[in-house]
Amino acid sequence: MKNILLTAVCVLRLATLPALVRADQTNIAEDDASQEAYKDGFGSGKNGGSGFGEWKTTSEGDGPDRHAGFFVATPDNNKDLNGIANNGKAWGLYANGTGFEQAVAFRPFKEPLAVGDSFSFMMENGKIEKKFETDDPATGSIGLTLRTGNASDTPADYNKDSIFEFGFYEGKGNYQIYDGSGSDKTDTGVPFTDSGVIVTITITGADTYDLEIQTASDKKLTKLPGRKLSSAGSISSLAIFDRDGEKYDAFFNSLQVARENK
Hints:
Layout: H1 8-14, E1 25-31, E2 56-60, E3 66-73, E4 90-97, E5 102-113, E6 118-125, E7 141-147, E8 162-169, E9 174-178, E10 186-191, E11 197-203, E12 208-215, E13 221-228, E14 235-243, E15 250-260
Antiparallel strand pairs: 1-15, 2-5, 3-4, 4-15, 5-14, 6-11, 6-15, 7-8, 7-14, 8-9, 9-10, 11-12, 12-13
């Protein structure tokens, strides 16, 4: 793990956040599900923490036997939330039913990510297993994208202008990434864990980045340096998604951007 140089006050505030800030970095954005903004739930217009714009949530799956949406999860009400809760809370997404349901939450950065910035998030989910025998056979996925645009009209926009995608995909045993380093998904080599992962992307150039994945349960750190984004461009937004995750819900938490000191 990276070294910390923090005041006593900052230690108390940042202890629950996923990435440790280096001595040459300063946090410019942070948020988590325990913020006051989410006391009445998680949805469009919510905006906790600092350094981000408002969330916009979109879903597909209304109607009998089709369900998709958003909520603030707690371990008391969600027994499978066991690794990434901050102060007992995380953002929850669900997408289950007999069709291909989707829940996608979009959020802009107030400042585009710059070279040297590190963006971190937490993600946790169960294995993607069908809830109904008559469920849509299409492949489910849960994850996060970083995007150069801000399209957010429908769940299908989750990967519009995406230059990085991290996720767990039905039928795969390890976490996968889409970026510019290959023609298809890249296997990270990090096995799925239902306790969740802490992911950090550090922008190293116009179209390059380093990736770190830490498992929440045992703190094992995997480094994948020198990777390419899908294209050059300012990263201005993110999207978190649950696309037919079925039997188990998806959880996200602790968004953070650390910037190099000038």
